[in-house]
Amino acid sequence: MTRKPIFLTSRRTVLKTGAAAAGMLAMPAILKAQDKPGEIIVRAWGGAWGDALREGVADPFTAATGINVRFDFTEDNEIKPKIWSAVDQGRVPPIHVNWDTTTNATISALRGVTVDLSDLSNLDGLLPLAKPAGLDGYPLVNTYAYVYVCAYRKEAFPDGPPKSWNVLIDPKFKGRIALYDDGIGFNPIAVLAGGGTLADIPDNMEPGYAFYRKVRDNNPLLGEDPDFTSWFQNGEIDVACTISVNAREAKQNGIDVEWTIPEEGCKVDTDGLWVPRGLPANEEHWAKEFVNFALSRDAQQKWCSLLGLPPVYPGLEPPADLVGDPAYPTTEADFARLISIPSPILVENQPIWFSRFNEIFQG
Amino acid sequence: MKNAFSKKLVLWSLVWFSVITLSLPTIIVVGASFTAGDIIQFPPEGFSLRWYQKLWELEGFKQALGRTVYVSVICTLLALPVGTLAAIALARYRFCFANLIQVYLMLPFTIPLVVSGISMMIFFGEIRILGKLWPVGVALCLINIPFMIWSVTASINALDPELENASYNCGAPPVQTFFSVTLPSVMPGIITGALLMFILAFNEFLVSLFLTDSRTVTLPVQIYNSIRSVITPDLAAVSVLYIIIALVAIWLLDRLVGLEIFLRSK
Amino acid sequence: MLLPGATRREFMKREQENRLPLSWKLLDGMERVVAFVWPSRFRHAVGWWFLLPALALVGILLIGLGYMVQYSLHELDISTYRLRADYSLANFATFLERPVYMRVLVRTLLASVIVTGVTMVLAFPYAYQLVRVRSAAMRKFLLIALFLPFFIGQVVRAYGWLIILGREGLVNGILGQFGIAPLNLLFNYPSVVFGLIQYMLPFAVLLIIPAVAAISEDVELASEGLGANWWATFRHVLLPMARPGLVGAGIVVFTLTMTDFAMPEIMGGGKNDFFASAIYDGFFQLSNPGLGAALSIILVVVGSVIVSGAFFLAGAASLKARGGG
Hints:
- The complex is a heterotrimer.
- Chain A is an alpha/beta fold.
- Chain A has two domains: about 5-145 and about 270-320, 3-Layer(aba) Sandwich (D-Maltodextrin-Binding Protein, domain 2); about 145-270 and about 330-360, D-Maltodextrin-Binding Protein, domain 2.
- In chain A, about 45% of the residues lie in helices and about 15% in strands.
- Chain A has 13 helices and ten strands.
- In chain A, strands 1, 2, 3, 4, 5, 6, 7, 8, 9 and 10 form a ten-stranded mixed beta sheet that branches.
- In chain A, α1 (about 5-25) packs across α3 (about 45-65), α3 (about 45-65) runs antiparallel to α11 (about 295-305) and α8 packs parallel to α9.
- In chain B, α3 (about 60-90) packs parallel to α7 and α7 packs antiparallel against α10.
- The radius of gyration of chain B is 22 Å and the shape is globular.
- The longest helix of chain B is centred in the N-terminal third of the chain and has 32 residues, at about 1-35.
- By secondary structure, chain B is mainly α.
- Chain C has a domain at about 100-320: Orthogonal Bundle (MetI-like fold), CATH 1.10.3720.
- Chain C has helices at about 5-20, 20-35, 45-70, 90-95, 100-130, 135-150, 155-165, 170-175, 190-215, 215-225, 230-240, 245-260, 260-265, 275-285, 290-320; strands at about 75, 80-85.
- Chain C has a two-stranded antiparallel ribbon with strand order 1-2.
- Chain C is extended, with a radius of gyration of 28 Å.
- The interface of A and B includes residues 47, 74, 233 and 253 of A.
């Protein structure tokens, strides 16, 4: 009964403290504060993802600092070479903050185009998930976890949710299944569904490839996030492996979609934020402030509950519709059902998995 | 009579098949843009202009439209002299390695746009003009220049060189011959080509994607990026905008020079 | 009033010059400037001067290709995600080692052949009827039907097809009225080819029109007067005379199809990628510019060989023949 009012008060307090903290951080560098840039550019994913960042982080940041935030909806894979060539050529990169998958961010970090974020004040006390694996310091910071769930049309499953990923090779759903077009989110799962074990990853992916060949014979559609939404909308597919955010958004738009974690488990992964090198000092400062702001309690709460994803800020409540949902892992037991592949392994092997996936499905 | 009838039947069936194939997506998209629902569908769910309103309110839409016009104009203005001169040269003068030149001038088509986009991003970055808007216009001209050359060449091939010789024989010096005889004869090709260049630049998204950033984004890039995130009917509304611009352009062309100009060869 | 002969001629000449339109004077001026900066002994190079701007413009791509050649000769170092300094042919070896690339290349070329063939079969009658139809209203209608879809770009048109051919789209809705189960009309090879034909049709018609328009109707009448039926007239008179336009349009359609990216991406359902997608994946998905560049060079070489072949076979005619003139 008392939870709600307390939550509200604390939220308001945090907002004030947040603004004060932003002001304080700017204080030691009065010169920097004077050259406050008019805007900073954040690369973001569109749709529900971008709306959540706008409402949860960007707008409060503008309110606290007076700096406008412009979103750049260039695809994550396409911004990469743009930033890389800018850094290599000593030009100012086209964006200030990149919202990126941890694997892609790690690749950029390995390439040495990211700024170290270790001095951000809000890093203290975050869940260990925030720290990028296999890298020194914080060339990027993870902001939340997400799960590649098994999303399905309820109508097509009158006897309850699919129990196993074998549903993808069920001839009943021939031509009515979908995966990401590079197999992302499914590569390790395929190994398990194909009879392999976690120990097989990454050295023996053959069971996964064998499973892929069976999936291929079941004629799947391959696409990206927006494709899944439209395919579900248009009744093109019955079941898909996609991020829970997309399934939840489709459901909120009135489409009859549910999701589940089959017995083999689902892949859990993280997204992060990073700042490219080569920005003018004042812009770099405020780009880092943006990242810091995104890690504050209030921003994490709002942003991640809009996305429906577990934040790296500890102890926050899940949104009402996701309490107890396996796609919103919070406890040890939740994570035990999910499969997490360390990013160093992903960085090294994901390109190989992508090309093998491609080879099998373009056959 | 039978001969004429079978000719008519075959030709018109093919033409009508083409007309339907060409027009159907346009009609469907226009219809879908007036939907009151949240998704693109046909027949649309109810009637409303809400997606047009949303489009108009969309952040940066008007600036993006302005930039698109700007780069398309640069592309067209550059293509006019470059393409026309090249076409005249190819049709009127003999070159050693003529076939090699043809293959070279086809590079904009044989090099995939993805590759052209990346390599121009690197090159423009190297010479520090990346991030400005005018190089996008130059790039769009470059990747479409074969269209300009081809449409002018087609007109020149239709021009009898004896006309030019006659002009010389009557004492007209070369510049006069060029402006009074050659150029007017190839005008249909030049107009076709210029129109093509403008339209193609107005629609191009793949190369522009690499040469613009969020400060210089053009309309097709914005559309492409938004398609890839969520497909809402405002996309159909943008298409209707394109259709209106098309109709205006066609109408203008008809008023100024007459559409028939496309059908003349001399 | 009698003027000495020379003065009189002088006077008349001045009178005449005063009466000349301004544009003529301008033209004369330009003539003199051109003659001064460009003496007639340079005239033989005039073709090259005309060609120079285009050669320079396309030169930008040549510089770009230079980068690509450079990239393609270095292997990716996965620990730093930079290309190694030493030269190697590893990226080209990868192309040969992975059969998927050859498969995708063959699929791309096959589609280009089909699209070119069908597009020409549709485009020639369209261009012909446009030029020959008597009714001005019909002519205008055909022109507008040609230009309109042309203005709305490939991506949007592909989405129009998704609405029409989708599982719960227009066509399946109509079929459903007759009790026919929904068909899978989308996300397969034929749908990509169909989308591309629709996309290429306006290009082809516009490029063929001038060639058809150059053919005098009398030629057709003569042929028919000599007893040829319309089909024979088409085959033996019209098509050969329009050959420059047809070859040009064919080459344009072929190369644009071969390098197309958007249509297979949108209408192929992810399993009917063309070679441009493989290049894209190399650069962006695999973050391997070396491999992406190697694949680019392979496609450019294949495309250029085919284009040169087409020019070699038909080129002499397409360049030197004067169409119907």
